[in-house]
Amino acid sequence: xxxxVQLEGPQTIAGLIVEPVTGTNGVxxxxxxxxxxxxxxxxxxxxxxxxxxxxxxxxxTGAWFAVDHWQVVPDILTMxxxxxxxxxxLGAVGLRQKIADHFSAVPFPGGLTYGSHPVACAAAxxxxxxxEDDRLVDHARETGALMASLLADLATRHPSVGxxxxxxxxxxxxxxxxxxxxEPLAPFNGGSPEMTALGKFFREEGxxxxxxWNYFFTNPPLTITETELRxxxxxxxxxxxxxxxxxTSG
Length: 250
Hints:
This protein is of the alpha/beta class. The chain is built from 7 helices and 8 strands, in the order αβαβββαααββαββα. It is globular, with a radius of gyration of 21 Å.
């Protein structure tokens, strides 16, 4: 990244946008030091660090925001989804004081028809109150430790599992045809009979999750109990047994 900044010229770069934990593309958790390095790089060259916490924010990773795991403070932070538990559509942007001060004197030429809608804002306040009163962020961190162990168990016992990753209650399972070659069970931006059958099995068993390409997510509600989490993973276990048979027989 330092080389790219030098090649492009830091004066041409207004900001660097990053998902602290990449969501839809695979729950990719950065190694320790990565986000701190981005912060230092941006500070060195006067570039704004913008954190997209639409998926990872509000307790999903076991912290209020994913950046909190690495004690990194972005200049701009975007948020949505968990802000209202998705009961009402609402997105928000957090700014460092020096940036906010700029717009106290300079009008921001933007807006939406439903901007600052009172119903959406009320839903956000109610959601935040429940998260604080019920300690849902702490619960996500504590229950996330159990989910990590359940994911590791799946990886140990199922030959179709190529990789598992999680942080808090933000998890994913990648499926492969062979652990030696790590050939995905479905191609990029495509599907396969095995993945279709697995998704169908999950739904028939009452488990609803995001199945995409060769992976599926394990992102339960932050309110989930240990019993409910184990029940969900028991369904996953049975579904993977079906996929294992298909993979090994092929």
